[in-house]
């Protein structure tokens, strides 16, 4: 009921915005862009952002139309109002959240305070800054991206100061978090580069504010002397059941294993204080070999770096390391270069970071399912914005199977049957090993396909964009390519649109809907979503 009352209030504001549409249309380009100066002057004379909202939104909508050829729909304006009001807006996938964000970003940038939009990866931050940037520049505002297309490039403090001095900044959640920590570790005031926080829009807000809320971003230093190779070799000689026991995410040495460790390292008491370092390294090495699995817990990048995997999204967690020496134990296990083991110097969670903003809002296609939790944690209200046109996705009933093998076989038979008609298929799985299993089946069936497992947001976006063309078969983890539109190829609409087949046990509605969403975007016409769930 609260959401409906909010929408009713927003509709009144929407009508006021639309009253200015003709007046804005009659202005020349110069007259339209000069409104920014006028708005700033009126703010300094005592008007509030809420006072300016109808006229400012009408102005930026006209700028969107002139620069991008896109005039925001009424529902996008409603969403933009919700974001300015500090709410969390749910909009269906493909409804144009990127264009919607131009309105609250422009309005809040008029205050000459920081206005930041945070995305989930570098690709989206750069894409949005490049695509929307000309609109802000047309209106006399500056825009910058806090990330680089070259992943190995890092900005110095002077470059960051220039970036964050821009009226509007597009960057990533993790990028802002680490910049906040670095900014607090500089030795002089002159080296600080962040402006005081004011307004932020968090994209994919449910994933960041809830799933990753307590994940600490850490800056560390003071490397410690380390020697992991001997402990790693020792652990490879152990036998489960005799030397160690494992149960429900825990592992420990047995009495026989302890005696063997004392003999191996030539010490008299494995738990004596003077042998604490040996004990610690053996413990981490044992955990590395028994509790962490390649392609489920971590991956090795092309340049030999061990990077952790987010169990929920399947994405690489750039810049995040396990603490206490566990990360180095994994590196020793995989025989890659062992990074310096460090002590924490500074740390912040996403939850604490976003609570520092006087005005924080967010948007997602799947946020209403967590409305209660978001209110309890952040005191943020969720508003569901209706779609511009009805979703044309057809959801089929789940199919359950006795085991994973039967499940995969049935799903792949369905994929091949659909593929033979020429209709494109998007196969969604939970983990990277599952993408490999599905790919292996398709290789044996001689079905050409692409595999996406969230390793590189730039090239995965290019591939997912082509997933709607005739005869395309794409295998992806749930988060791969998220935020990228899939356009239907010629003749696909007549075949029924994009078919989405989800494989695996679905934990929650929020995990289902990002997978189903691609099939229902208006840009993709009719489509089918099918989920095959394994019984547990």
Note down, in words, how this protein is organized.
The protein has 22 helices and 20 strands. The model is unreliable at 222-226 and 506-536 (pLDDT under 50). It is an alpha/beta fold. The strands form five sheets. The protein has a seven-stranded parallel β-sheet. It is 44% helix and 17% strand. A hairpin with a 5-residue loop joins β9 (298-300) and β10. α4 (49-68) crosses α7 and α5 (74-84) crosses α7.
Brief summary:
With 536 residues, the protein is an alpha/beta fold.
β-strand number: 20
Number of helical regions: 22
Q: Which structural class fits the helix and strand makeup? A: alpha/beta
The portion of residues assigned to helices is: 40-55%
Q: Which oligomerization state do the chains in this entry correspond to?
A: single chain
- Beta-strand fraction estimate: 15-25%
**What is the radius of gyration computed over CA atoms, rounded to a whole number of angstroms?**
26 Å
What form results from the Cα inertia axes?
Answer: globular
Low-confidence stretches: 222-226, 506-536
How widely separated are the two ends? Answer: 37 Å
Question: Widest sheet: strand order?
Answer: 3-4-2-5-12-1-13
Mean pLDDT: 85
Major sheet details? 7 strands, parallel
Spell out the blueprint of helices and strands.
Layout: H1 2-19, H2 21-25, H3 29-44, H4 49-68, H5 74-84, E1 88-90, H6 97-100, H7 102-109, E2 115-119, H8 122-138, E3 143-145, H9 157-164, E4 168-172, H10 173-185, E5 199-203, H11 205-211, E6 216-221, H12 229-236, E7 244-247, E8 250-253, H13 255-265, H14 276-290, E9 298-300, E10 306-308, H15 326-333, E11 343-349, H16 350-354, E12 359-364, H17 371-378, E13 382-384, E14 393-395, E15 399-401, H18 404-419, E16 425-429, H19 432-444, E17 450-452, H20 457-465, E18 473-477, H21 492-495, E19 499-503, H22 509-520, E20 527-534
Parallel strand pairs: 1-12, 1-13, 2-4, 2-5, 3-4, 5-12, 14-20, 15-20, 16-18, 16-19, 17-18, 19-20
Antiparallel strand pairs: 6-11, 7-8, 9-10
Helix pairs in contact: 1-4, 1-5, 3-4, 4-7, 4-8, 5-7, 12-14, 14-15, 18-19
């Amino acid at each position: 009921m609260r959401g409906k009352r909010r929408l009713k209030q927003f509709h009144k504001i929407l009508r006021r915005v639309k009253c200015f549409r003709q007046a804005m249309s009659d202005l020349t380009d110069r007259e339209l862009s000069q409104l920014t100066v006028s708005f700033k002057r009126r703010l300094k004379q005592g008007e509030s952002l809420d006072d300016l909202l109808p006229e400012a939104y009408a102005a930026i909508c006209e700028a969107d139309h002139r620069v991008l050829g896109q005039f925001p729909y009424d529902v996008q304006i409603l969403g933009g109002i919700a974001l300015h009001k500090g709410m969390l807006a749910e909009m269906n996938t493909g409804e144009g959240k990127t264009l919607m964000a131009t309105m609250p970003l422009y309005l809040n940038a008029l205050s000459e305070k920081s206005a930041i939009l945070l995305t989930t990866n570098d690709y989206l931050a750069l894409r949005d800054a490049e695509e929307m940037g000309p609109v802000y520049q047309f209106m006399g505002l500056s825009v910058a991206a806090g990330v680089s297309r070259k992943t190995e490039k890092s900005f110095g403090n002077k470059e960051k100061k220039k970036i964050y001095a821009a009226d509007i900044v597009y960057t990533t959640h993790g990028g802002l978090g680490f910049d906040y920590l670095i900014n607090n570790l500089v030795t002089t005031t002159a080296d600080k580069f962040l402006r005081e926080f004011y307004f932020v829009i968090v994209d994919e807000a449910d994933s960041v504010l809830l799933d990753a809320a307590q994940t600490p971003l850490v800056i560390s230093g003071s490397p410690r002397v380390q020697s992991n190779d001997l402990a790693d070799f020792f652990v490879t000689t152990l036998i489960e059941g005799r030397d160690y026991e494992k149960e429900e995410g825990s592992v420990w040495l047995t009495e026989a294993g302890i005696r063997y460790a004392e003999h191996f390292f030539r010490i008299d008491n494995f738990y004596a204080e003077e042998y604490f370092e040996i004990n610690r390294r053996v413990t981490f090495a044992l955990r590395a070999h028994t509790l962490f699995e390649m392609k489920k817990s971590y991956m090795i990048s092309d340049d030999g770096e061990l990077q952790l995997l987010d169990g929920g999204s399947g994405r690489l967690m750039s810049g995040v390391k396990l603490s206490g020496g566990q990360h180095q134990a994994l590196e020793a296990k995989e025989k890659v270069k062992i990074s310096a083991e460090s002590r924490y110097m500074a740390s912040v969670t996403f939850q604490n970071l976003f609570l520092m903003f006087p005005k924080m809002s967010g948007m997602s296609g799947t946020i209403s399912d967590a409305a209660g939790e978001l209110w309890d944690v952040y005191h943020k209200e969720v508003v569901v914005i209706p779609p511009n046109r009805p979703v044309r996705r057809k959801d089929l009933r789940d199919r359950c199977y006795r085991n994973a093998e039967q499940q995969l076989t049935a799903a792949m038979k369905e994929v091949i049957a659909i593929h033979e008609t020429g209709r494109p298929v998007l196969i969604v799985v939970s983990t990277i090993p599952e993408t490999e299993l599905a790919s292996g089946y398709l290789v044996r069936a001689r079905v050409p396909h692409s595999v996406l497992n969230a390793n590189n947001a730039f090239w995965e976006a290019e591939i997912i964009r082509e997933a709607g063309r005739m005869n395309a078969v794409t295998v992806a983890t749930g988060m791969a390519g998220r935020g990228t539109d899939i356009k239907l190829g010629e003749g696909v609409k007549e075949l029924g649109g994009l078919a989405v087949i989800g494989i695996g046990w679905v934990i929650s509605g929020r995990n289902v809907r990002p997978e189903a969403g691609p099939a229902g975007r208006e840009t993709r016409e009719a489509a089918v979503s099918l989920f095959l769930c394994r019984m547990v």
